[in-house]
Amino acid sequence: MQILTGESLDRATLLRLADAGEPVTLTQCRLDGVDLSDLDLTGWRFDRCSLQHAQFNAARLEDATLLNCRAAGASFLGASLLDAVIEGGDYSNASFLGATLTDARVSGCKMTGADLTDVQAIGLTLREVLLVMAILPRLSFRKAQLSGVDLSEADLRGCDFRDAVFEDCSLRDAHLPDCRFDGADLRGADLGGIRLTDARLFKGAVISKRQAGELLGQLGLRVL
Fold first, then answer.
1. pTM of the model as a whole
2. Looking at residue 216, what is its pLDDT?
């Protein structure tokens, strides 16, 4: 395995490394704005790298690890992140449009404004992820265990939250038309901004007395 530390890398260098067919570890390397589209980066490790506005479009990142990277504005259009680990770092306004995140693990990340439209995400694990104002239409969270996930003001239209469990999460002011919450446990979710007229979306879900009181408070009623 090759290990590079503290280097500024261009596409030609990365292509040569990828063509060698062995996983590479990049530590504190700078790849800002570099085009890594279509490269086979299976098993690569990016440790504290700067990936701002880098392009990973249609790249293969199966079993890759991205640890504490700065990747604001990066593009992962159509990339395969099967079994990948994204831990820590900043992916604000990054695009994962059409990417594969099946069985990927994402934790401790800032993904404010990220676009996850048309992502394939069966088995995706999210923990302590900031997805404020993110775009995640029709994503399936069925039976997911969501812990510390902030979806405030996110576009969640058509998402499937059936049988999901929320722990220390937020759906405050999220866009929720056509979502499904049958069997979901919402007691650990901030439902602030949800209007009583939207309560039908939560049919079949479990909420706390406090949450019910907040909803009914809009009618001037108190739950004791």
1. 0.91
2. 72
